[in-house]
Design goal:
Radius of gyration: 24 Å
Number of helices: 14
Distance between the termini: 47 Å
Strand content: 5-15%
Number of strands: 9
Shape: globular
Strand order of the largest sheet: 3-4-5-6-7
Largest sheet: 5 strands, antiparallel
Order of helices and strands: HHHEEHHHHHHHHHHEEEEEHEE
Length: 482
């Protein structure tokens, strides 16, 4: 754990407004930072003040306001922001708090030797906490958020990066989301900080420019979907930027392709993990809210099917089976924003029959997607925990979040787990336990002696991997896979 002094209660303002990008150059790998610099956005102080006044006076972007009110301005996040201000301890997710001094941070911190902690760190989750605290009128929260934004930019708009997560494809998209929310807060704060808004707007533009670059786009993954969605959000929120119209069209084109790829015709997400299915289903609904568009009937049907599958997926305890890269979590409060029959079925399953609509069948078999979930019955609420539940998987549409788990099953009976999955464990691929958790040996399946599983097959269905036959027989449901 990094040892440091508590954060200063009132971070000082910078002595000058020198650009953060004066020394930027093309970094290694695929991040096209040579595209960041844009002379059209290098305003002098007079133009900077004029632009700042324009953004201060215009209405808030509707989706930025909605997302902030539902996701950002939570009392749990506000409490983390208050703790951060009072003690200097910053906490991300389920990791232990870490003492960080923001005026001395190097942005190479890795207190847990864990890329996932850095993933939170570089998307600037600490700024989210401080913005939530600012909403509840916590003193010094907004100046502290500005200090972190300055610090990150000073360290990461450089020829070399302090962390491999600094300009990671997924982190860059989520950091842009942080910048969009930050801009919304800072533009309305008094007194108007025109130089900082100038810098922040150029930071937003540079992130859009990077996300728009073809070699940076992570096609046919949940990363690519988030990249395209947040690029669309930024382009629609800042039509004043000279490239915004092009970014808007590009993001829409990419999203059509991503949506078509990431769900099977049965509405199931292809990345091998129930947790990612629910996450991307919710993300797709958020994108539709962002655009305000009514989806075409075929997409509406696929979303409905996705909720039907999610209703089947939930175990009797309201949790998803920890298959693939799924973490254990109670989904009883999760809700769709769309009035779909499948969403009502999900509510029934999530609330243990207390509300919603009971699915027409206790079983769900999805041969095109390679999943089968079987129950003995949808029991009454007072006996819901007695459900006999069997989950079975045999499919390979993507190598993302893939475990060696074809023909794997999980079984729950009499309120207890009898056969379980290894689950996510963590994203640190170097860790021996992570390697074991992804292997055949950690799953309830059969392995020919001496064989080695293949995880990197081309992103098409694996020949011979899937459900090949199923049907109802007296007193049983039959499912054959290979």
């Amino acid at each position: 754990m990094t040892e440091s002094k508590p954060a200063q209660p009132n971070p000082p303002e910078p002595a000058s407004t020198q650009s953060w990008w004066d020394h930027a150059s093309t970094p290694p790998d695929k991040t096209p930072l040579h595209l960041i610099l844009d002379g059209q956005l290098r305003w002098d102080s007079a133009v900077s003040a004029e632009v700042a006044r324009h953004f201060q006076q215009r209405p808030a972007h509707p989706y930025t306001r909605r997302w902030s009110s539902k996701q950002l301005l939570l009392k749990t996040k506000s409490a983390l922001g208050v703790t951060q201000l009072q003690t200097g301890a910053t906490q991300y997710g389920t990791y232990a708090p870490v003492a960080l001094t923001w005026d001395a941070i190097q942005w190479n911190e890795d207190p847990f030797s864990n890329l996932n902690w850095q993933w939170f760190h570089h998307q600037l989750m600490s700024v989210h906490h401080l913005l939530a605290a600012a909403h509840f009128e916590t003193p010094n929260a907004l100046p502290a958020a500005k200090q972190i934004l300055r610090s990150w930019a000073a360290a990461n708009y450089q020829p070399t990066f302090p962390s491999p997560l600094a300009w990671d494809d997924h982190v860059t998209a989520f950091r842009l989301r942080t910048l969009l929310c930050s801009f919304e807060w800072i533009r309305s704060a008094e007194p108007l900080d025109a130089p900082f808004l100038d810098h922040l707007l150029r930071m937003i533009a540079s992130h859009c420019r990077v996300l728009a670059t073809e070699e940076f786009f992570n096609r046919h993954t949940n990363h690519g979907f988030d990249q395209a969605t947040i690029l669309y959000w930024a382009a629609s929120a800042f039509p004043e930027l000279s490239e915004a119209a092009g970014w808007l069209q590009l993001s829409q084109d990419r999203l059509r392709e991503e949506i078509d790829f990431m769900f099977t015709p049965e509405g199931i997400h292809v990345e091998n993990s129930p947790g990612y299915h629910v996450w991307l289903l919710m993300a797709l609904e958020e994108y539709l809210l962002m655009t305000g568009d009514q989806p075409p009937p075929e997409l509406e049907a696929r979303i409905n099917a996705g909720w039907d599958y999610a209703a089947c997926l939930l175990q009797p305890d309201g949790r998803l089976p920890i298959v693939g890269d799924t973490a254990s979590r109670d989904f009883a409060t999760l809700r769709s924003v769309r009035p779909l029959p499948g969403a009502q079925n999900f509510i029934y399953s999530a609330t243990r029959g207390k509300s919603g609509t009971r699915p027409s069948s206790p079983d769900g078999i999805f041969p095109q997607s390679g999943y089968a979930i079987l129950r003995d019955a949808w029991h009454p609420t007072d006996r819901f925990s007695e459900t006999l539940y069997l989950f079975f998987k045999c499919s390979f549409f993507s190598d993302y979040h893939r475990h060696d788990d074809d023909l794997h099953f999980a079984l729950i009976a009499l309120g207890e787990e009898w056969f379980i999955d290894s689950g996510l464990y963590g994203y640190e691929e170097r860790h021996p336990l992570r390697r074991y958790m992804r292997s055949n040996e950690a799953h309830n399946t059969v392995i020919p002696e001496g064989s080695v599983a293949i995880r990197t097959i081309a992103r098409h269905p694996s020949p011979g991997s899937g459900i090949v036959e199923h049907g109802v027989q007296p007193e049983c449901q039959r499912c054959l896979a290979r």
